[in-house]
Amino acid sequence: MIHSIHKQIVTRIIKKRRGKLIFPADFNDLGNGNAVKTSLSRLVNDGMLERLAQGIYLYPKHDNVLGTLYPSAEDIAYNIAKRDKARIIPTGVAALHRLRLSTQVPMKLVYLTDGAPRKIKVGKHIITFKSTTAKRLAAKGKISSMVIQALLELGKEAVTDQVLNRITEVLQQEDKKKIKEDSKLAPAWIASILLSIMEKLEKDDRVAGIN
Q: For residue 25, which of 73, 79, 90 has the smallest C-alpha distance?
């Protein structure tokens, strides 16, 4: 039976694209958790998979020049959330970096989540999932929620014209209704920024429509 499970796991992995993250939970339907873990460990030893962290594996993709291509810590965080069917929002430096408001590559990534709190070390990076209230995760827009967290990290006094221009640029990709709704969940000074940008985008849309 164990041999059969191993064979099924290998077949499924081969069907996936290289560079894909693999979790033991991907094989829950096979019904034998210990056999799955044993099989994945065997595939690491055989060189088919690479273990990135406890319970997180990579079906590696190789480049002739760069060698093994690894997913970013952010990609790993979102894949974990997808696996756990949990919502996450990047906070602090992670939000700033994702919105390109900072060139600093964060070694410590912190995400608010409605899933299980945990800390995962992946290479030099530490990914922390912090439990939070439903209200803090109630934002509808993926981009506007990140903007709120980024502004909270910056603070009101650090919001320059350059920051506002970048936020305006990224919010062009967000549903304006979501911006308006999410502004209700933000502190007053952030809500004011979001609504001001939303009005500017709506005005630009009207002008574009006339032209």
A: 79
Predicted model pTM: 0.80
Alpha helices in 16-126 (DSSP H): 33-46, 73-84, 92-98
Q: Quote the CA–CA distance of 108 and 170 in Å, as a whole number.
A: 24
Do 144 and 133 sit in the same domain of this protein? Answer: no
End-to-end Cα separation, the chain, in angstroms? 68
DSSP sequence for 90-102: E-HHHHHHHTTS-
Total number of residues shown for the chain:
211
Per-residue pLDDT tens for 57-90?
A: 999 999 899 899 999 999 999 999 999 999 999 9
Strand 56-59 to strand 118-122: parallel, antiparallel, or no bridges (unpaired)?
unpaired
Q: For residue 123, what are the domain limits?
A: 72-138
Helices (H) and strands (E) in the chain, counts: 8, 9
Indicate whether 122 and 154 sit together in one domain. Answer: no
Number of domains in the chain: 3
Q: What is the mean pLDDT of residues 16-28?
A: 93
Q: Are residues 165 and 131 in the same domain?
A: no
- Name the token pair of 175: 């549903």
Q: Is the domain of 93 the same as that of 124?
A: yes
Token pair, residue 87, equals 């919502």
